[in-house]
Amino acid sequence: MSTAQGPEPDRSFRAPRKALFPLWVWPLGVLACLAGFFGLTESGAVIAREVLEAVGLKRPEELDVAESRPTQETSGAWAASAKQPWDGMVHLTASQRDTLGVKMAAVAPQSEPVRMEIQGKTDYNPDTIIKVRPRFDALVLAVHATVGKKVEKGDPLVELYSVQLAEAKLAYESKQSQSIHDRQIASQQRDLVAQGVLPPTSRTLLDAENNQRRSDLEFKLARDTLVVYGVSLEDIEKVAQEDGTEKAKMTLCAQGGGTIIGRDVAVGNIYDVNDTLFTISALDELWVLGQVYERDLASITEGLKWEVQFPFTKEVVEGQVEYVSNQVDPDTHAVRIRGSIPNQHGRYKSDQLVRIVVFEPPVAGHVVIPRSAVVVCEDDHVVFVKNGDTNDAFERRLVKSAHELRESAIVSEGLTAGELIVVNGGILLQQLYEDSKP
């Protein structure tokens, strides 16, 4: 239809305002289209495409204006992908990369060890701990040592009084007397046989020799009982000289040297074989214990170097992993590792909290990339690698991470040293990749 003023513009493409987009978007769209149409700047065309996509147009060629300039060299990566089959890569020109803030860096080979930090604590070496216990029911008459005292083997610790000890000493004397008696009888019988008074097969001789062997065994058992009770061989020889209550007394001595780290004994109390009176430990070496979670177990082996850091004193002690447990703690789901540190001057204490840094040596073929380069897609880890054949193509590649550190990641599969990868803007390329799928 036409009017006197001229042809009436065709308004048939218009839809109700509610079916389009918010009114405030129109000015942006008009400005963007003008920028792209007149070619004010190359970035203006990019802005136009972004605005068009924001309002619902997925490709720049959907706008007639974008195709109305025969002098335009290219309509960008989207137009190129629309004219030919998709090659599975993301195409971005240099200006598009600048607009999106895409940055690249070269993949570096792993040259430094991986620092694995875990929490730990110090502890006494159980191989050097001595538990001092009475070996019979006893009353404590005196105590000669306390916590913190250094003792040597044989130093007196506590005076005990025990009826069981007295009975054992009496049994020893009785069996000793019987053994001497039976030995003399057997000797007399052998003399009679030698004189021809008795035949060699005399029953009397056989019985005498049997009694001697039995009494010798009983005497040996009584003597060994005193040794088990802790009576020294020198004191055993003096048992016969003890009178009255002296047989019930004994001085319990240290079985080894070290420092007393625990005491649970008092004068006047009665203790049995289940009670620990003293705990002695050599403090010239301490254990260091750490917990490694299951995900890091493959990286921990015996012999790896480590540092033990004391956070409150700022001291660092070097050592190595000496033991990796073969059992997972059911409560923490962690595996205990162990090492040791020298402590000749007793500077370090048991149960001190420490930070352990385990150094895993670099592995041939592993590479290091910034952690920002890794895009996590569900269960996959992907990195966008610049295609060496073209300047604007990026390949989406699956990678396998061996370690994820604070600022970097150690990749074991999927990348080689020297390749250029996207370290900033990878999530944008991932979205473009998803949109480019046929």
Describe the overall structure.
This protein has about 450 residues and is an alpha+beta fold. It has four domains: about 20-80, no CATH class; about 105-110 and about 365-435, conserved putative lor/sdh protein from methanococcus maripaludis s2 fold (Beta Barrel), CATH 2.40.420.20; about 115-125 and about 280-360, Efflux pump adaptor protein, beta barrel domain (Elongation Factor Tu (Ef-tu), domain 3); about 135-275, no CATH class. It is built from eight helices and 27 strands. The chain has helices at about 25-40, 40-55, 75-85, 95-100, 165-195, 205-230, 235, 425-435, and strands at about 1-5, 5, 90, 105, 110, 115-125, 130, 140-145, 150, 155-160, 250-255, 260-265, 270, 280, 285-295, 305-310, 315-320, 325-330, 335-340, 355-360, 365-370, 375, 380-385, 395-400, 400-405, 410-415, 420-425. The strands form seven sheets. A seven-stranded antiparallel beta sheet has the order 17-16-20-6-15-19-18, with no helix packed on it. A four-stranded antiparallel beta sheet has the order 3-24-23-22. Strands 5-21-26-25 form a four-stranded antiparallel beta sheet, with no helix packed on it. It starts with a strand and ends with a helix.
